[in-house]
Amino acid sequence: MSEVTLQAFLDDWAGADPLRCAVAATVERLAEAGVAIAEMVARGPLAEDFGKVRGDEANAGGDAQKELDVIAEEELVDALGKAPVAFLASEESETPIPLDPQGRVVVAVDPLDGSSNIDTNVSIGTIFSILPYDLEQHPDPSAALLQPGTAQIAAGFLVYGPATVLVSSLGDGTQVFVFDHDTATFILAREKVEIPATTKEYGINQSNVRHWAPATQRYIEDCLAGKDGPRGKDFNMRWVGSLVADAFRIFTRGGVYLYPGDSRKGYAEGRLRLIYEANPVAFVTEQAGGAATDGTRRILDIVPSQIHQRIPLVFGSREEVEKIASYY
Ligand SMILES: O=P(O)(O)OC[C@H]1O[C@](O)(COP(=O)(O)O)[C@@H](O)[C@@H]1O
Ligand SMILES: [Mg+2]
Ligand SMILES: [Mg+2]
Q1: Whose alpha carbon is nearest atom 7 of ligand 1?
Q2: Is 257 known as a binding-site position?
Q3: pTM for this one?
Q4: What is the CATH topology of the domain spanning 6-190?
Q5: Whose CA is nearest to atom 10 of ligand 1?
Q6: Which mutation among 242, 264, 310 tests ligand 1's pocket best, with the greatest number of atoms within 8 A of CB?
Q7: How confident is the model over 202-261, as pLDDT tens digits?
Q8: Class of domain 201-327
Q9: Where is the Fructose-1-6-bisphosphatase class I N-terminal domain positioned along the sequence (predicted)?
Q10: Of all atoms in ligand 1, which is nearest to the CA of residue 115?
Q11: Whole-angstrom Cα distance, residue 299 to residue 319?
């Protein structure tokens, strides 16, 4: 069987439809930027700026900014400058970056996800969300970026790990592409991925247990009680601390990821950002048969009020996500 490249897959989907062609061109440019970022990451400590914190600067979300966060954003701005993208919202920029005034789409990105893992040689990645843009409908770019996740035409993430992979959906299932160094192309590796509906594996930063709401504490307690507890089965725990890597594991063998709100200062709505972390991950998750919630609401239905808004996030195997929601 012949291999399907990302470009062939996108061309086939886009046909002659102008909006789809704009989306396809955007995904191609994102993948191109991803390859450049992956190469930089792969140099590890040989790269001059590897793992360095950038002065005392914090990004728009108040997190310490690493040199590589900013370099990754620059790669994305350069690449998307060659696509029909009107505005780019990024974790690393307070306000949207204007690109092509004639652009048909707006894009939101987490340029480098898992920044705390940069210098530990653990998988990190890039997350993206693509929304339709119409100047007449959205004279203010922020309004276009504040559409709910259901409006996404395409979304996904890249993981820079042992393999560079692209997990993405164009609204008809979720596909996994793997970068092939021999041909310098992304090759379709898994079509219409299905996340198993049930699981015995969860991921959460358990060091925050004392800060959690009672519902989160009860759910984890019940998992820890194992076979003899109310869940009647033994659970396993995994936490990479890079959303992209934890998500890729869930796309591979199922599981659930939780970053709930907690009582620490600034964490009432958890840590993750709605438009460039939760929404794209929720989109590819639902397209793979999984579910994503903030505990009480479907993530994709939430209407964002701010570009850097945070949201509690629970996603993964559908039945387990529903179970968790029942605790809230
Ligand atoms: O360090 P914590 O609190 O466990 O948070 C880990 C989470 O934070 C994140 O690193 C946030 O992303 P950034 O690295 O883009 O800020 C997620 O990837 C990860 O799941
Ligand atoms: Mg992130
Ligand atoms: Mg980031």
Answers
A1: 241
A2: yes
A3: 0.96
A4: Fructose-1,6-Bisphosphatase; Chain A, domain 1 (3.30.540)
A5: 114
A6: 242
A7: 999 999 999 999 999 999 999 999 999 999 999 999 999 999 999 999 999 999 999 999
A8: alpha beta
A9: 28-190
A10: 14
A11: 16
